[in-house]
Amino acid sequence: MGRFLGGLVLVLAATGASAGLLDLLRKPSIELKTGLLDLSLEELVLNTSILGLIELEIDVNQVIAVLTLPGGIETDLIINFDRVIGLNEDSLGLSASELDPEDPALLQRLPAGAMIIPQADFPMLIEIEPVDNFAFANDVELEIHTHNLEFTPGTRLRLFAAAHGEAFRDITTYVGPGSYRSRGRRGKFSEFLVVEDNRDTDTVIATKFDYLRDLLEGYRGDIPPYIYWVLRTEINSAKNAWNFDDDDRATDLLDSAIETVNRNRGLIPNVWHPNLDMKNVAGEFTAAAQTLIFSLDLPD
């Protein structure tokens, strides 16, 4: 029944019933007559896997949505694609669920050391699982904006992401007020959550450098050799500059690496598809470099 209930909310939203759904949530005595079975609002509210997709607007390469869970858990979500095909409400596969911040299965997927804390005030796991007729090129930017969290200068709240079953990692490229707003970039999908990251900034930067270099090595066979060596040199030079406390030089070199990738899209695979064996090397590389630049730009 839980799967049906979640689907029911999605159907209500997708058919433009957002105002009606909000009215229902404010009137606990109302019952829904579905034609298949009768559901009281209490049954809906008690089902914590429900996603309320209150609004979903698609404008060419942009998605704007409002996701809500019982208990006043809500976020605005904006997804900006560089290039995308097959984008519609059905193909995007957008959903959300309430997570348990103390779930061992979740904690095992976060960086070790008990320094990463899922937020009890915003226990939302956002999932994007596109279907066959969907594909995008380069990287995609996601922005979340929630009033469940408060932005303060120097905040440690970060946007983390993972493919299904993989470890979560920091993809943040921006944090700011409103009450809390963050952005991140990805070259693939599918899971996202906000955590408090209390690791030392230098540890985060070193981890992101290691990830970027591992990413380049992992895709070495998919990149023309002369481009690979340019990127390797730029990454190593950026790491050396950071080691000598020249963050500005490190950032410039990473920007140069991003430009190298952007100039060679196509030669470097740059398309992601949910089921085809297509490696979005360009998107994953530029996304990893952008979040590294974010960390380098943080105050010491």
Task: Based on the model shown, name its key terms.
6-stranded antiparallel sheet; alpha+beta; 7-stranded antiparallel sheet; 15 strands; disordered N terminus; 35% helix; 9 helices; 300 residues
Summarize the structure.
With 300 residues, the chain is of the alpha+beta class. It is built from nine helices and 15 strands.
Tell me what the structure shows.
Helices cover 35% and strands 30% of the residues. Helix 6 (201-218) packs antiparallel against helix 9 and helix 7 (225-243) runs antiparallel to helix 8 (247-263). Residues 1-50 have low confidence and may be disordered. The strands form three sheets. Strands 3, 4, 5, 9, 12, 13 and 15 form a seven-stranded antiparallel sheet that branches. The radius of gyration is 21 Å and the shape is globular. The chain has helices at 2-14, 18-25, 41-46, 89-92, 104-107, 201-218, 225-243, 247-263, 281-296, and strands at 31-33, 38-40, 52-59, 62-69, 73-85, 94-98, 116-118, 124-128, 135-146, 157-162, 169-170, 172-177, 180-186, 191-197, 271-272. A hairpin with a 2-residue loop joins strand 3 (52-59) and strand 4 (62-69). It contains nine helices and 15 strands. The longest helix is centred in the C-terminal third of the chain and has 19 residues, at 225-243. With 300 residues, the protein is α+β, with helices and mostly antiparallel strands.
